[in-house]
Amino acid sequence: KHLQGSKDHSVLLWDIENEKRSHTLCPMWKKGANAEASTRTLGEVLSVACSDDGRFAAVGKRDSTVSIYDIRVGSNNLVKTFTGHKGPVTCLSFRTQSLQLFSGSEDRCIRHYNLSEMMYLETLYGHQFGVTDVDCHRKERPISVGRDRTARAWKIAEDTHLIFRGGASVSSADCVSLLKDDWYLTGHDDGHLGLWMTEKKRAVANIGLAHGADGNVGRGVCSIGTLKGSDLAITGSHDGYLRLWKAMTGSTLDTRSLDLLTEIPLEGYVNGIAVGPKAKFCVVAVGQEPGFGRWNRIPGAKNRFGIIPLRCPDE
Asked: What is the rounded CA–CA span in Å between residue 126 and residue 280?
Protein backbone atom coordinates (compact mmCIF):
# COMPACT_ATOMS: atom_id res chain seq x y z
CA LYS A 1 0.00 0.00 0.00
CA HIS A 2 1.04 3.57 -0.59
CA LEU A 3 -0.01 6.95 0.75
CA GLN A 4 -0.77 10.04 -1.34
CA GLY A 5 -1.40 13.59 -0.10
CA SER A 6 -2.51 16.65 -2.04
CA LYS A 7 -2.96 20.40 -1.74
CA ASP A 8 -6.73 19.89 -1.97
CA HIS A 9 -6.55 18.43 1.60
CA SER A 10 -7.15 14.85 0.44
CA VAL A 11 -5.09 11.89 1.68
CA LEU A 12 -5.65 8.61 -0.18
CA LEU A 13 -4.41 5.09 0.49
CA TRP A 14 -3.68 3.06 -2.65
CA ASP A 15 -3.51 -0.70 -3.14
CA ILE A 16 -0.50 -1.05 -5.44
CA GLU A 17 -0.98 -4.77 -6.19
CA ASN A 18 -4.52 -4.30 -7.48
CA GLU A 19 -3.83 -0.79 -8.81
CA LYS A 20 -6.85 0.79 -7.15
CA ARG A 21 -7.70 3.15 -4.30
CA SER A 22 -8.04 1.39 -0.95
CA HIS A 23 -9.77 4.12 1.08
CA THR A 24 -9.72 7.83 1.86
CA LEU A 25 -8.09 9.12 5.05
CA CYS A 26 -8.92 12.80 4.47
CA PRO A 27 -11.62 14.06 2.10
CA MET A 28 -11.06 16.70 -0.56
CA TRP A 29 -11.75 20.31 0.43
CA LYS A 30 -15.01 21.79 -0.78
CA LYS A 31 -16.15 25.33 -0.34
CA GLY A 32 -18.99 25.47 2.14
CA ALA A 33 -21.34 28.17 3.29
CA ASN A 34 -19.15 29.20 6.23
CA ALA A 35 -15.74 28.30 4.77
CA GLU A 36 -13.16 31.05 4.85
CA ALA A 37 -10.60 31.62 2.10
CA SER A 38 -7.73 30.89 4.51
CA THR A 39 -9.17 27.50 5.51
CA ARG A 40 -8.25 25.92 2.20
CA THR A 41 -4.66 27.17 2.42
CA LEU A 42 -4.08 25.99 6.00
CA GLY A 43 -5.36 22.49 5.29
CA GLU A 44 -2.97 21.80 2.40
CA VAL A 45 -1.15 18.47 2.82
CA LEU A 46 2.58 19.08 2.31
CA SER A 47 4.05 15.75 3.46
CA VAL A 48 3.03 12.16 4.19
CA ALA A 49 4.85 9.11 5.56
CA CYS A 50 3.92 5.51 6.32
CA SER A 51 5.49 3.15 8.87
CA ASP A 52 7.19 0.00 7.58
CA ASP A 53 4.82 -2.31 9.46
CA GLY A 54 1.79 -0.75 7.75
CA ARG A 55 0.19 0.41 11.00
CA PHE A 56 0.41 4.18 10.98
CA ALA A 57 0.28 7.00 8.45
CA ALA A 58 1.58 10.47 9.32
CA VAL A 59 0.24 13.58 7.56
CA GLY A 60 1.90 17.00 7.78
CA LYS A 61 -0.09 20.10 6.85
CA ARG A 62 0.38 23.81 6.30
CA ASP A 63 -1.44 24.49 9.58
CA SER A 64 1.70 23.16 11.40
CA THR A 65 0.06 19.95 12.68
CA VAL A 66 1.12 16.31 12.35
CA SER A 67 -1.85 13.92 12.22
CA ILE A 68 -1.45 10.19 12.91
CA TYR A 69 -3.88 7.70 11.32
CA ASP A 70 -4.29 3.97 11.94
CA ILE A 71 -4.50 2.63 8.38
CA ARG A 72 -5.42 -0.93 9.44
CA VAL A 73 -9.03 0.19 9.92
CA GLY A 74 -11.32 2.04 7.53
CA SER A 75 -12.77 5.48 8.18
CA ASN A 76 -12.65 7.50 11.44
CA ASN A 77 -9.12 6.30 12.05
CA LEU A 78 -7.47 9.50 13.35
CA VAL A 79 -5.42 8.44 16.39
CA LYS A 80 -3.67 11.66 17.46
CA THR A 81 -2.81 15.13 16.23
CA PHE A 82 0.53 16.56 17.35
CA THR A 83 0.90 20.32 17.63
CA GLY A 84 4.06 22.23 18.48
CA HIS A 85 5.51 23.31 15.15
CA LYS A 86 5.19 27.03 14.49
CA GLY A 87 5.31 26.74 10.69
CA PRO A 88 4.10 24.46 7.89
CA VAL A 89 5.24 20.83 8.25
CA THR A 90 7.28 20.30 5.09
CA CYS A 91 8.66 16.77 5.61
CA LEU A 92 8.08 13.54 7.53
CA SER A 93 10.12 10.37 7.84
CA PHE A 94 9.86 7.14 9.80
CA ARG A 95 12.98 5.35 10.98
CA THR A 96 13.31 2.05 9.09
CA GLN A 97 11.60 -0.89 10.88
CA SER A 98 10.58 1.40 13.72
CA LEU A 99 7.75 3.62 14.96
CA GLN A 100 10.04 6.60 15.53
CA LEU A 101 8.89 9.59 13.47
CA PHE A 102 10.73 12.80 12.54
CA SER A 103 8.98 15.93 11.27
CA GLY A 104 10.63 19.02 9.75
CA SER A 105 9.08 22.45 9.40
CA GLU A 106 9.64 25.97 8.14
CA ASP A 107 10.09 26.99 11.79
CA ARG A 108 13.68 25.58 11.50
CA CYS A 109 13.01 22.71 13.93
CA ILE A 110 12.83 18.93 13.69
CA ARG A 111 10.54 17.19 16.15
CA HIS A 112 10.99 13.58 17.25
CA TYR A 113 8.04 11.30 18.16
CA ASN A 114 7.56 7.73 19.37
CA LEU A 115 4.31 6.34 17.95
CA SER A 116 4.41 3.10 19.95
CA GLU A 117 3.51 5.28 22.96
CA MET A 118 1.99 8.16 20.93
CA MET A 119 4.22 10.74 22.54
CA TYR A 120 6.47 13.62 21.54
CA LEU A 121 10.09 13.10 22.62
CA GLU A 122 12.28 16.10 21.74
CA THR A 123 13.00 18.96 19.38
CA LEU A 124 16.23 19.18 17.37
CA TYR A 125 17.56 22.72 16.91
CA GLY A 126 20.33 23.81 14.56
CA HIS A 127 19.02 24.81 11.14
CA GLN A 128 19.17 28.55 10.52
CA PHE A 129 16.32 28.50 8.00
CA GLY A 130 13.37 26.28 7.10
CA VAL A 131 13.83 22.49 6.91
CA THR A 132 12.92 21.14 3.47
CA ASP A 133 13.42 17.37 3.88
CA VAL A 134 14.45 14.69 6.38
CA ASP A 135 15.20 10.97 6.05
CA CYS A 136 16.25 8.18 8.40
CA HIS A 137 17.40 4.58 7.96
CA ARG A 138 18.26 1.92 10.56
CA LYS A 139 20.48 3.98 12.87
CA GLU A 140 18.92 6.61 15.12
CA ARG A 141 20.63 9.26 13.01
CA PRO A 142 18.28 11.24 10.73
CA ILE A 143 19.67 13.39 7.92
CA SER A 144 18.01 16.73 7.15
CA VAL A 145 18.47 19.52 4.61
CA GLY A 146 17.26 23.11 4.78
CA ARG A 147 17.17 26.52 3.16
CA ASP A 148 20.34 27.46 5.08
CA ARG A 149 22.27 25.49 2.41
CA THR A 150 23.38 22.80 4.87
CA ALA A 151 22.76 19.12 5.41
CA ARG A 152 22.83 17.89 8.99
CA ALA A 153 23.28 14.42 10.49
CA TRP A 154 21.66 14.28 13.93
CA LYS A 155 23.25 12.00 16.52
CA ILE A 156 20.26 11.53 18.81
CA ALA A 157 22.05 9.51 21.51
CA GLU A 158 24.99 11.94 21.80
CA ASP A 159 22.70 15.01 21.53
CA THR A 160 24.87 16.56 18.81
CA HIS A 161 24.95 16.85 15.02
CA LEU A 162 27.30 17.14 12.04
CA ILE A 163 27.04 19.92 9.44
CA PHE A 164 27.73 19.45 5.72
CA ARG A 165 28.01 22.34 3.25
CA GLY A 166 27.94 22.10 -0.53
CA GLY A 167 30.06 25.18 -1.18
CA ALA A 168 29.48 28.66 -2.53
CA SER A 169 28.44 27.46 -6.00
CA VAL A 170 25.70 25.10 -4.76
CA SER A 171 22.31 26.39 -3.64
CA SER A 172 20.06 24.94 -0.93
CA ALA A 173 18.75 21.39 -1.16
CA ASP A 174 15.09 20.53 -1.67
CA CYS A 175 15.31 16.80 -0.95
CA VAL A 176 17.47 14.15 0.72
CA SER A 177 17.38 10.35 0.69
CA LEU A 178 19.59 7.78 2.39
CA LEU A 179 21.14 4.86 0.53
CA LYS A 180 22.76 3.40 3.65
CA ASP A 181 23.17 4.71 7.19
CA ASP A 182 26.31 6.66 6.27
CA TRP A 183 25.60 7.43 2.58
CA TYR A 184 22.95 9.82 1.26
CA LEU A 185 21.92 11.87 -1.77
CA THR A 186 20.84 15.51 -1.91
CA GLY A 187 18.92 17.23 -4.70
CA HIS A 188 19.31 21.01 -5.01
CA ASP A 189 17.08 23.70 -6.52
CA ASP A 190 19.83 24.76 -8.96
CA GLY A 191 19.96 21.27 -10.52
CA HIS A 192 22.89 19.81 -8.56
CA LEU A 193 22.73 16.19 -7.39
CA GLY A 194 25.21 15.28 -4.65
CA LEU A 195 26.40 11.97 -3.19
CA TRP A 196 27.63 12.26 0.42
CA MET A 197 29.06 10.12 3.19
CA THR A 198 28.85 11.17 6.83
CA GLU A 199 32.61 10.87 7.32
CA LYS A 200 33.35 13.56 4.70
CA LYS A 201 32.42 17.24 4.97
CA ARG A 202 32.24 17.67 1.19
CA ALA A 203 30.23 15.76 -1.40
CA VAL A 204 31.92 12.60 -2.71
CA ALA A 205 30.34 13.05 -6.15
CA ASN A 206 28.51 15.98 -7.72
CA ILE A 207 26.37 16.10 -10.87
CA GLY A 208 25.67 19.61 -12.14
CA LEU A 209 22.45 20.20 -14.08
CA ALA A 210 21.26 16.65 -13.40
CA HIS A 211 17.97 17.40 -15.18
CA GLY A 212 19.22 19.95 -17.70
CA ALA A 213 18.55 23.70 -17.72
CA ASP A 214 16.01 26.29 -18.85
CA GLY A 215 18.32 28.81 -20.50
CA ASN A 216 21.01 29.60 -17.93
CA VAL A 217 19.04 28.32 -14.94
CA GLY A 218 19.25 24.68 -13.92
CA ARG A 219 16.05 22.73 -13.32
CA GLY A 220 15.78 21.97 -9.62
CA VAL A 221 15.72 18.37 -8.39
CA CYS A 222 12.26 18.12 -6.82
CA SER A 223 12.44 14.61 -5.35
CA ILE A 224 14.73 11.63 -4.76
CA GLY A 225 13.78 8.01 -4.16
CA THR A 226 16.24 5.28 -3.18
CA LEU A 227 16.13 1.58 -2.50
CA LYS A 228 17.62 1.44 0.99
CA GLY A 229 20.74 -0.69 1.23
CA SER A 230 21.33 -0.72 -2.55
CA ASP A 231 22.97 1.51 -5.17
CA LEU A 232 19.75 2.55 -6.96
CA ALA A 233 18.53 6.16 -6.87
CA ILE A 234 15.71 7.83 -8.82
CA THR A 235 15.37 11.60 -9.25
CA GLY A 236 12.53 13.75 -10.55
CA SER A 237 12.23 17.32 -11.76
CA HIS A 238 10.04 19.06 -14.39
CA ASP A 239 12.09 18.33 -17.51
CA GLY A 240 9.77 15.54 -18.65
CA TYR A 241 11.93 12.61 -17.49
CA LEU A 242 12.42 10.41 -14.45
CA ARG A 243 16.12 9.56 -14.17
CA LEU A 244 17.63 6.39 -12.68
CA TRP A 245 21.15 6.55 -11.21
CA LYS A 246 23.73 4.07 -9.99
CA ALA A 247 25.42 5.37 -6.83
CA MET A 248 28.84 3.79 -6.32
CA THR A 249 29.78 3.81 -2.61
CA GLY A 250 33.15 2.05 -2.65
CA SER A 251 36.02 2.35 -0.19
CA THR A 252 38.33 4.24 -2.59
CA LEU A 253 37.91 7.42 -4.61
CA ASP A 254 37.88 5.45 -7.87
CA THR A 255 34.84 3.46 -6.74
CA ARG A 256 32.69 6.42 -5.70
CA SER A 257 30.54 8.02 -8.38
CA LEU A 258 27.06 8.76 -9.72
CA ASP A 259 26.27 7.25 -13.11
CA LEU A 260 23.09 7.76 -15.15
CA LEU A 261 21.39 4.46 -16.01
CA THR A 262 18.29 5.41 -17.99
CA GLU A 263 15.47 7.92 -18.39
CA ILE A 264 11.70 7.37 -18.22
CA PRO A 265 9.41 9.97 -19.91
CA LEU A 266 7.07 11.64 -17.40
CA GLU A 267 5.48 15.05 -17.89
CA GLY A 268 4.97 17.42 -14.96
CA TYR A 269 6.58 18.15 -11.62
CA VAL A 270 7.66 14.92 -9.91
CA ASN A 271 7.03 15.97 -6.29
CA GLY A 272 7.49 12.57 -4.68
CA ILE A 273 9.14 9.21 -5.42
CA ALA A 274 9.03 5.93 -3.47
CA VAL A 275 10.78 2.74 -4.60
CA GLY A 276 8.98 -0.56 -4.01
CA PRO A 277 10.44 -3.79 -2.57
CA LYS A 278 13.38 -5.16 -4.58
CA ALA A 279 12.92 -2.22 -7.00
CA LYS A 280 10.15 -4.03 -8.86
CA PHE A 281 8.31 -0.73 -9.26
CA CYS A 282 8.28 2.84 -8.08
CA VAL A 283 5.38 5.18 -7.32
CA VAL A 284 5.46 8.88 -8.16
CA ALA A 285 3.38 11.93 -7.30
CA VAL A 286 3.11 14.16 -10.37
CA GLY A 287 1.60 17.65 -10.47
CA GLN A 288 1.27 20.76 -12.58
CA GLU A 289 3.23 22.82 -10.03
CA PRO A 290 5.90 22.35 -7.31
CA GLY A 291 4.90 20.86 -3.99
CA PHE A 292 5.42 24.04 -1.97
CA GLY A 293 4.48 26.72 -4.51
CA ARG A 294 2.51 27.67 -7.60
CA TRP A 295 5.19 29.11 -9.89
CA ASN A 296 6.20 27.94 -13.37
CA ARG A 297 3.05 25.90 -13.83
CA ILE A 298 2.89 23.22 -16.55
CA PRO A 299 -0.68 23.32 -17.94
CA GLY A 300 -0.26 20.19 -20.06
CA ALA A 301 0.56 17.98 -17.06
CA LYS A 302 -1.98 16.16 -14.90
CA ASN A 303 -2.15 15.98 -11.12
CA ARG A 304 -1.88 12.24 -10.65
CA PHE A 305 -0.44 9.25 -8.83
CA GLY A 306 1.65 6.94 -10.99
CA ILE A 307 2.92 3.35 -10.70
CA ILE A 308 5.97 2.70 -12.87
CA PRO A 309 7.26 -0.89 -13.27
CA LEU A 310 11.05 -1.10 -13.17
CA ARG A 311 11.40 -4.80 -13.99
CA CYS A 312 9.82 -7.21 -16.44
CA PRO A 313 6.84 -9.16 -15.00
CA ASP A 314 8.68 -12.49 -15.25
CA GLU A 315 11.69 -11.31 -13.21
From this structure: 38
Strand order in the sheet with 193-197: 173-180, 183-188, 193-197, 205-207
What is the CB neighbour count within 10 angstroms for residue 73? 10
Task: Tell me the per-residue pLDDT of 126-179, one tens digit each, with 9 for 90 and over.
Answer: 999 999 999 999 999 999 999 999 999 999 999 999 999 988 889 999 999 999
CA-to-CA dists, residue 133 to 40, 53, 142, 150, angstroms: 23, 22, 10, 11
Smallest Cα–Cα separation from 181: which of 206, 147, 156?
156
Helix, strand or coil, per DSSP, at residue 113: strand
pTM (predicted TM-score): 0.93
Summarize pLDDT for 18-52 with one digit per residue, the tens. 888 888 888 888 876 445 544 778 889 999 999 99
Edge-to-edge, what's the strand order for the sheet holding 131-135? Answer: 131-135, 143-146, 150-155, 160-165
Neighbours of 300 (CB within 10 A): 8
